[in-house]
Amino acid sequence: MQLQSNAGLGMPAGDEPGQQGLLQAMLRALMAEVLATQQPAVDDTRPDLPPLLKPEQVKELTGWSRNTVDRMIDDGDLPHIIAREGSKQRMRQVPKAFVLLMLADLNRGVSIPDMRAYAQRWQASAVPQRQGAAQLSAGAAL
After folding, report:
1. SS3 for 117?
2. Exposure b/e, 106-132, CB count within 10 A at least 16 = b
3. Alpha-carbon distances of 29 from 23, 34, 69, 133, rounded to whole Å
4. What is the pLDDT of residue 19?
């Protein structure tokens, strides 16, 4: 996108080439931030996998060690559900949609410096709370 003049933007005339370059850099940075915060739908490239993955399946898809996957689940860095809790162990599963989106983003060159924040953004966009559920959680906190 090329800008022709700063006059229409209410910017003072002057060093227009320098101002245009600065404005274009700011616009590119803003667009990159907007695109990074959007959670696009990811094609299910792995229909052979169930919607909820076992930690072993996450390990195989990501190349991380099983200990790393377990630690990330324990630390809240990977969204998960507890499918069953026994007296000695818990059956935890990670949404396939999250893992596929994360891998797609990483393959596109997106940097994920804070996995917990990335997972929270995904949860907020993928699992919108219903009003009744939000009221119940707010009531439980009182």
Report:
1. helix
2. eeeeeeeeeeeebbeebeeeeeeeeee
3. 10, 9, 32, 36
4. 77
Residue range of the domain that includes 90: 52-127
Is 11 within a domain? no
Residue 56 counted as domain residue: yes
* Identity at 74, one-letter amino acid code: D
What is the DSSP code string of 34-101?
Answer: HHHHS------S-TTS-SEE-HHHHHHHH---HHHHHHHHHHTSS--EEEEE-SS-EEEEEEHHHHHH
Q: Which two tokens stand for residue 122?
A: 């995904």
CA angle (69, 75, 76) in 5-degree steps: 90
Structural domain total, the chain? 1
10-residue mean pLDDT series, the chain (142 residues): 48 60 74 55 77 96 96 94 87 94 93 94 75 47 46
At residue 95, φ and ψ (nearest 5 deg) are -60, 130
Structure confidence at residue 137 (pLDDT) = 43
d(CA 91, CA 85): 6
